[in-house]
Every structure is written in C-alpha cells, then in structure tokens.
Amino acid sequence: MTIEQVATAVRGHFDRMRTAGCGFADARLYDEDASQRVVLYDGNLESNNRGLERGIGVRVLYEGAWGFAATADLDTIGACFDRALTNARAAARLPGFPKEMGPARPAKGEYRAPVVKDPFEVPLAEKLAFLTGIDERLKDDSVKQRIVHARFQRRRIHYWNTEGTDVSRFVNNTFATMMVMAPDKDGRTQRRSVELYSDGSGTRGWEWLTNPDWFSGHAERIKRELFEVVAAEPLPPGRRDLIILPGQGFLQVHETIGHPLELDRILGYELSFAGGSHVRPEMIGTLRYGSDKLNCRAGVTPNSPGTFGFDDEGTPQRDYYLIKQGILVNVLSSRTDLAEANAKAGSEVVSESGTAARACAFYRTPIDRMTNINIEPGEDGTLNDIVAATENGIIVDVPVSWSIGSNREHFHFGTEIAWEVKDGRRTRVFKNPTYQAHTLDFWRSLDKVGDKSTWLLQSVPNCGKGEPNQIMELGHGIPVMRFKDVQCGEAEAATKE
Amino acid sequence: MLENRIRELLGRARDEARKAGMNVELSFHREQSSLIRLGNSSVALATHEALTRLDVSVQDGRKVGSFSLTADIVSADQLREAVHHAAENCRAALPKDYDPIFGTVEEAVDDSAGYDPALEALSAEAKTDLCADIIKKLKPRGRYDFSGSWSTGSTEMYYTTTANDSECYRRLTDGRFVMVLKEQDKKWELQVELSQKAAADIRAAEVIAAFDDLRPVYEQNEGFATTIGRQRVLFGPQAIAQLVGLAIWGGFIGRSWEEKRSWTAQNKFGDRILSEAVTIVDDPANPDVFSMPFDFMGKRRRRFAVVERGVFKGLLYDSASAARYGKKPTGHDLASGDFGLAPGDGPAGLEAGRKLAGDALYVPHLHYIHLPDPTKGMFTGSSRFNAMRVKNGEFVAPIFSTRVTDTSPSVFNNVVAMSSKTVTHNESATYGRRTPDAMSVPEWLLCDNIRITDVADSF
Ligand SMILES: [Zn+2]
Question: Which residues form the signal peptide (chain A) (predicted)?
Fold first, then answer.
C-alpha cells in the first residue's frame, strides 16, 4: 500500500470511529523504521545487525478512555481500529478523570532531521573501517576489554488525526560509545568511556560520528584516564563541593529533573512501574526546585535525538522553560492530561501541551517523555574558573551506577572517575566515587554554572518507561555545575560494620 | 505446529538458501499481546498488538551478518529479500578471530503444551471488570488509590536452519498481573503480583485476600527507620528472584568468568562457593517456569545446574562465548532461561518464616538494582513494596525505604533457612518482543549479615 492509500483508508476509519462515538482518533504509520547496530568487543564483530519495522498504530478516545491497537498487516487497518475501539470501550468501564484533547490544533507539515550524509547510505565496510580504527587506538597491554559500539536509526513516520492534522517526520539518529576496562589492585573492574556528543549544533549524520571532536578524538584520553583510575585510591568519604561534568550531569538532570517533571508520573499514572514524583500539580508555578542559578528548558536543540519536529500527537515541538531561576514553571506533558492537572491543582497550572507525547515504535502508544531537557549555561566562567574558585571538592564524570527513590526525592550515584580539587587546583584522581543527596536540597545548593564553553549535548539512547515498556532516545544539554557541601563517598563507610 | 502458510514460506527460504550453498538460520516470532494499565483507580489505557517478526542470520566461515524484520510476512519474495540483507551484512563483516558455531536443530520440537486459547482471548473487558471488582471492594476500606497493569497474550517461536530439515516450534500463553494500592496520605504502597499460564489463574478474591493480609500492619503502625549496618533479613519472592538473577549475571556467565570479571573468577568447578543450602538450576521441566524447550541455536534445553548444594557446577555459554573460549554451548542463546533457586528444608508459609526469623527486616521486593562491581558480585537495591519489621516473629511495622549494598557471595553464604515451598515469580518485561519469563523461588529466604547502607525517612 502507498502512503496515500493508507491515508485514505485511515480517514475512512476516522469517520467510522466518530460515528461510533469517539471524540478523537489518530494513526501513526511507520513506513520505515530502520536500525543498524554494530558492536566490536575486543576487536571481534559481536553484533552486525540491520533491522526494519513497518506497521501502523491507532488510538481512539471513547467516553474519556483510551484504546490502542497496532498491526504490521496494513491490509487489516479496519480491524485494528475496531480493536482499539473495543479496548477503549473496555477501559471506559472503569473510568477515571476523563481524558480529553483540549482545543483542536490541526497541524500540517514535515520535519527532516538535519543530516548531510545518511549513515544508511554508508557501506558497512566503511563503518567497520572507522570503528576498527578507534578500536586499534584503544588497544594496550593494560586494557583488558574494549568495546566500540555504534547504532543508527532512520524513521519515516506519517501521522493523521480526526482534527485534520497531517504531518510527516523523517528522522535520523546516531549513537556511539567506546569503553575500556581493566582491573585495579583490589580486583575490581574499572572502566572509562565516552559517548558520541556535540555542542548541540551541526547535523546528525555520518559526518557527526566521524568528527574527531565529538567521538574518536577521545580514545587516547579515556585510555589514559583508565590507567589513572586503576592506580588511584578510593574516594575517602566526606562532605565536599561537587563539580559535575556534562558526562555525569546529563544523568543527574535526567533522573532528578526530567523524570519527576513528567506529567503522567506527577498524576500517578506510572506508579506501579516507573514510579511517581515528589512534584504535585499545585506546585507548578511556585515550587523552589533549585537555586536562582538553575534554568532548565525543554529545548529544541537542532542536533539531538530529542528533537523531532512534531510529537506523536502531531503537535509542533515547543521550546519552553521548565524551571526558571530555580522556580518550577512547567512540566513535560501531552495534550491528554492537562485538564486533570489543572483540576487537581485547583487553578490553571498548565495551559498547552508540552509536546512531549512520544512513542518508541508503531506498536506502542505515546506517553509523556523527555525531549531535550537542557540546563542553560550560566555566568560562572569556564571549568578552570570553577575549579579555581573551589577550596575542597571533587569533579565527577560518567555514571557507573545509580539508585533513586520511587518519587525521585533522593538519589545515589556512582561515577567512573573523580578528580580531587584542593585550594583551586586539580590534584589527584580517585576511584569508586559516589555521592548522594535529596533532590531539592541538592538543586538548591547549585552555586556555580559554567558558561557556554562548558555546555555539551549528551544523547540518551535508552530511557525506559511505560507499560507496554518503551525505550526512548532523547538529549540533555548540560553545562559544568557546582553543588555546595554534598555527601561524597559512602557515609556508612566510616561507621563500623 | 506453526501455521502452514508461514511454515511453507520459511521452509522454502531455507531450501533455496541451502541450494545456493548458504548457511542460514531463520527464526520467526509472532505475538498477540494485550494489556490494560491502571492508574488513579481507573483503566488509563488498553492496548492490543498483533506482531510478526523474522530474524535471519547468515554465516560464511568466520563472518556473520543478520537482519531482523517486523512486518507482516506474506510472500516468498519478502523472505528472499531478508536473506539477501543478512547475506550482504555477512559479506561486508569482519572475520572473527575464532570459528563461530552455526545453529543446528539437534532435536525437532513441536510444543504447544503451554497454550491456553482462553488466555489468548481474554478480553480487555473481562480484565477491566475483574480489576473494577477488586477496587470496588477495597477502596471503601481506606484512603486508597490503585494502579497496576495486566498483560496477557500468546507467543509463537519457530527456528530452523540450513543444517538440516528439523524445526523447533513452541506456542504458549502467559500473563502478568500487578496491582499497587497506595495510601494517599501516608504514601505507603502495597503490591500484589501474580503470574498466569491459563485464563482462570487470576481471581479477584485471591488478590483482595492478599491485600487484606498486608493492610493491618501498614494501617495501624507508623513507618520504621532501621539502622545502618549488618542485619538479619527475610526476603520475599520478588527480592529472591532479583538476588538469584544478580548472582547468575555476576557469577555464572561463561564470558565474564573467562574474562575474569565475575565474582567466581577465582574459582573452578567443584569449589564450594555458597552455603550448602543453595542450588541454582536452569530447568525447563520445573512446573513453576514457562519452560523453553530449545534455544535460538537449535539446542535442546535440559536441566543445567550452576550451583548445587553450594558447589560451583556450571557456567552459561552462549554459542559466541563458547566458540571464542573453546567451550560447548549450554543452551543459553536466548533472552531468558528457566532458572530457579531450589527450595530449602524450612517450614512452608510466610508465617512460619517470620516466626523462624524472630527479629528481622522483611524485604519482599528489591528495586533500583545496580551492579557497581560485578567482579565482587556487589549490588545495590532498595526495598519498596510490602516491607515490614519483624519482631519476636510478628510483623509489627512497615519499614521506610532501605538500601542494601552487599555482594552475591555474601548473601548466599549467609543463608539461615529457606522455605520448602517454591512459588513462581513472573519476570516478563514488555520491552520489544513478547518473551514470557519466570523464575522459581522459595516463598521466603532468611539471611544473616545483610549490609544495610541507607535508610530513608519515607517509604
Ligand atoms: Zn529515563
């Protein structure tokens, strides 16, 4: 079937759904959802896979309840709508706050992710030559394991709804990681890694991956730093100022700002799986989330997997503040739950969709997701300026482990590496660094935010949420940040066992 | 056996590839999945997915390439194209520095024993009505809010290769029911989760009774903040399944052992590594699990022990690790196994377990699990649902969120007792393709010296 034939069929079924009593319906056709994954493990090609998915997912709103159905068989679109309607009717038997789409905002248009050279047009041999070149540079007698991994996505998605919205997206994404591992003298495996990143500008194709500034140029550095970690002493526990590089800051923001600001979590729709949020609807507009230095946006960063043109309700992606000068001013939302949030808050706290309705495949329904959750650069200079202004601190980079309360109110992170800062100078490296805090105390202790020179866009290829489970890709633009007086190292390490 | 139309297409593709001198593995996956999602005591979403997937792998000497297709499989041309894509990937691949093993069906399998048409057809309406019944009865008993999910469906898996004409096929149904009751003022959460092989396995009365068993201690007592340090802990099924999973992942994966990254790296088979009470086996014949009869290299799966009475017995090798390290594959080229922690000789029933425990923490769930140091088997995880303080053999108070940071060998070397009765813990996720997954675990596990490293002042 051609796209036009599918569109015609879908429109016919929209009429049928309206007649059956549905207030709203939409359809997403994945004409192409292509993926490629290449993994080199100690130089061996361990994964060499290409994938293609094609199918349609439809959603209907019946008496304030959602029904969804998906099929790979485009000859059965009618039956797919029928199943979605049956599901919505079933859901309406145990109704909650009625779901509603709010005012109709029909959109038409097309989004194309900025790409110079489509990675799917690059022959596998060329990809392997590039990745093997990196692997060669990671080799060393003291490196015990090496991993070089690249993953590519290309999607052609068409969206229609009963309001007349008709939008298309042509999206490419590129992800890559390199990692080296070696045991320390205690037998514990230490690691150092880097993910493909950028300054948020530029394009998302093969040219991004092959720009040495953003990936391959770091091979020697991570190898050198691994050897420093292997030779280092463990971080002694204590309270210190904590300087977070973007390689760690992205996950700090992801887990303690991004997830708790998802409206479905705030309203309790993720309780049994991903968890809830310490934020309640009435706090939107007043909660002091962080210090005055904290400015966080759901951004439309040109070169990021969190930029997609139109969300999965067909709404053009918006760029807006979530936290302004430390005050929570908005949350990540779709159209569906705004009325419920306002009713629960007792006043209008959210006025329009946060354009965060996203689905990971044609066979998954859109839920509230992160897009680009970015911290704006500040006025406290470069990393060197921040280090120079620090008496007793550590600098940390790249997560190893994390554990976070179900409402995201407290957290514990372990990172690959820490550098001690004493009297304004970087001194030695520590291994096994960890830190922990309560979310709001922590963000309120933010006292230095680096300038644009410290701001980097980190990709997250694998954020998990929702039932049925969905893996989503997104971005975080993060400057260097300093937090005052944070518990670093295991507090109990000092107590007897 | 698989529907004839698709079976013939797959057979034809295999025969054509063989005629062309190619080594090709074909696997086919078909699911009918449906799920209802509960939030704020309502059904927030009801879904249905009908999906077919084809995986093709082509091997030429030391080169391997693969291709996966999620689309309706309708024609021989489609299959030819998929084989062609995998072959192209293979052609351009880097040769490995070892001889990869080619998949071969060693024994034909045609298994539909786990298929219940009534569970496959269980409607969203029937599921909604059962949940509505539970909520209607429980809601008036407190300031409660309900959330959860209920996934049911059927899965077909088929595997054949150009090595011979034999085929492996299985069809089964499965379900996983999870309901969370949250007290809206005090913020505590109770959870009931059940595993399902047949439509009749979930009954409202059973769910209500399970919540009613838990509610009084939570209703009548304030949260208890325990102290940091080593303590006696009584683990429940979900936590035990997590602990067993961590022990396997950190200690019994052949590749990690070969690369000296597992906590068993310094040990050899025959060494006593855990308490004598501990036996961990992958056993498709265990009635608690979903029983995967073959893996995706065509190996017939049979009972496989990694630890027997505390003694190191085996390591899990998928075919790539086996080939690389000169070992035999063990039937573990698949997403999940049929693992179990064998029952102990302790009395059956949670009541008997807590009486035996005396003073302890009851931690039936561990969430937010991470493995910061697999070499030592070190993990972290936090209590979440249904956790209680045990004093003089009685549940006396709910406990606040409590973090455990310990190692697998330490936990399983400090076993005091285990229930003699096992239960199923359903581990199925709904990421990607439907993959029923369950573990068989004793209903309780009592351990001493569990390292508590953080105690919150909230649930
Ligand atoms: Zn996430």
Answer: none
Q: Does residue B174 have a pLDDT over 60?
A: yes
User: In this prediction, what percent of chain A has a pLDDT beyond 70?
Assistant: 99
Domain count, chain A: 2
Q: Are A405 and B458 in contact (CB under 8 A)?
A: yes
Q: Helices B124-138 and A77-91, interaxial angle, to 10°?
A: 10
Residues B75/B12, Cβ–Cβ less than 8 Å: no
B51–A363 C-beta distance less than 8 A: yes
Percentage helix, strand, coil for chain B under 3-state DSSP, each rounded to 5: 25, 40, 35
Asked if B55 and B204 sit in the same domain, the reply is yes
Contacts of B403 in chain A (CB under 8 A): 403, 412
Phi, psi of A202 (to 5 degrees): 85, -160
- Listed residues A231, A256, A272: the one ending a domain: A231
Other CB atoms within a 10 A radius of the CB of residue A64 amount to: 18
* H/E stretch holding B371: strand B366-373
Residue B362 tokens, joined = 């009851």
Q: Which residues of A243-276 are buried (b: 16+ CB within 10 A; e: fewer)?
A: bbbbbbbbbbbbbbbbbbbbbbbbbbbbbbbbbb
Decide if B281 contacts B304 (C-beta within 8 A).
yes
The reported pLDDT for the residue numbered A497 is 29
Cross-strand pairs, A464: A471
pLDDT at A494: 35
* Cis amide bond preceding A468, omega within 30: yes
Q: Which of B48, B190, B402 to mutate to test the interface with A (most CBs of A within 10 A)?
A: B48
Instruction: Check CB contact of B388 with chain A, cutoff 8 Å.
Output: no
Q: What is the ipTM of this complex?
A: 0.94
Q: Is B276 on the interface with A (CB under 8 A)?
A: no
- pTM equals 0.95
- Tell me: do A199 and A306 sit in the same domain: no
Write out the E strands in A200-263. 233-234, 238-244
Asked if residue A380 and residue A320 are part of one domain, the reply reads yes
Range of the domain at A417: 234-496
For A145, name the nearest residue in chain B, comparing CA atoms only. B259
Q: What pLDDT sits at residue A491? A: 56
A477-486 CB burial, b ≥16 within 10 A, e <16: bbbbbbbbeb
Asked whether the predicted pLDDT for residue A404 surpasses 70, the reply is yes
Computed over every residue of chain B, the mean pLDDT equals 96
pLDDT of residue A492: 47
Rounded Cα gap, residues A342 and A284, in angstroms: 10
User: Which residues, at least 6 apart from A446, have a Cβ–Cβ distance to it below 8 Å?
Assistant: A290, A291, A293, A294, A481, A482, A483
pLDDT tens digit string along A214-250?
Answer: 999 999 999 999 999 999 999 999 999 999 999 999 9
As for how many domains chain B has, the answer is: 2
Looking at the fold, whether A338 and A218 belong to one and the same domain comes out as no
Cβ-defined contact of A269 to B180 (cutoff 8 Å) = no
Place of tokens 């937090």: A483
Domain boundary among B186, B220, B254: B220
Residues from chain A contacting residue B372 (CB–CB below 8 Å): 400-401, 414, 432
pLDDT (tens digit per residue) in B100-121: 999 999 999 999 999 999 999 9
Asked if A93 and B125 come within 8 Å (Cβ–Cβ), the reply is yes
The CATH code of the domain that includes A121 is 3.30.2290.10
Specify whether A127 is located in the same domain as A178.
yes
Among B36, B39, B458, select the one facing A268 at the smallest CB separation: B39
Check whether A88 has a pLDDT greater than 50: yes
DSSP state letter for B131: H
Cα–Cα dist A87/A386, whole Å: 55
Gap between the Cα atoms of B355 and B358, Å rounded: 5
DSSP A121-171: GS-HHHHHHHHHHHHHHH--TT--EEEEEEEEEEEEEEEEETT--EEEEEE
